[in-house]
Amino acid sequence: MGGRSRGHGRLRKPAREREAEAQILAEWQVVAGLKDGELIAERPDAAPNPAVEVSELLPDGTEFKAVWSHLRQSGVAKLVTVHYFDRG
């Protein structure tokens, strides 16, 4: 067998996974982006709490979708999840 070794080197993570790790999002960035965000959808009948989807921007211009839920008992908004739009 030649001098090349196969399968014994360090495995590289897929590019998408490496990119996701590099783009770490702080909660304060999502909260700050809400002010200038654009409403995508309202889901008043969502269970267990009403929710909204908002398109927001990071300071570097990266666009993402934040899903916020309105907690009726406490009257506050809670960040549910964040999704990056397809960058492909």
Provide a descriptive summary of the structure in words.
With 88 residues, the chain is of the alpha+beta class. The protein has a domain of 51 residues. It is 18% helix and 35% strand. It contains 2 helices and 4 strands, in the order H-H-E-E-E-E. It has a 4-stranded antiparallel β-sheet. A hairpin with a 7-residue loop joins strand 1 and strand 2. The protein is globular and about 50 Å long. The relative contact order is 0.17.
Show the helix and strand layout.
Blueprint: H1 15-22, H2 27-34, E1 38-43, E2 51-57, E3 63-71, E4 76-84
Antiparallel strand pairs: 1-2, 2-3, 3-4
Q: What is the general shape?
A: globular
Q: What share of residues are in beta strands?
A: 35-45%
Oligomer: single chain
First-residue to last-residue Cα separation: 39 Å
Number of helices: 2
Q: Strands of the largest sheet, in order across it?
A: 1-2-3-4
Instruction: Please state the average pLDDT score.
Output: 80
Q: Main β-sheet: number of strands, strand sense, barrel status?
A: 4 strands, antiparallel
Uncertain segments are 1-8
Order of helices and strands: HHEEEE
Number of strands: 4
**Which secondary-structure class do the elements indicate?**
alpha+beta
Helix content: 10-25%
**Computed Rg:** 19 Å
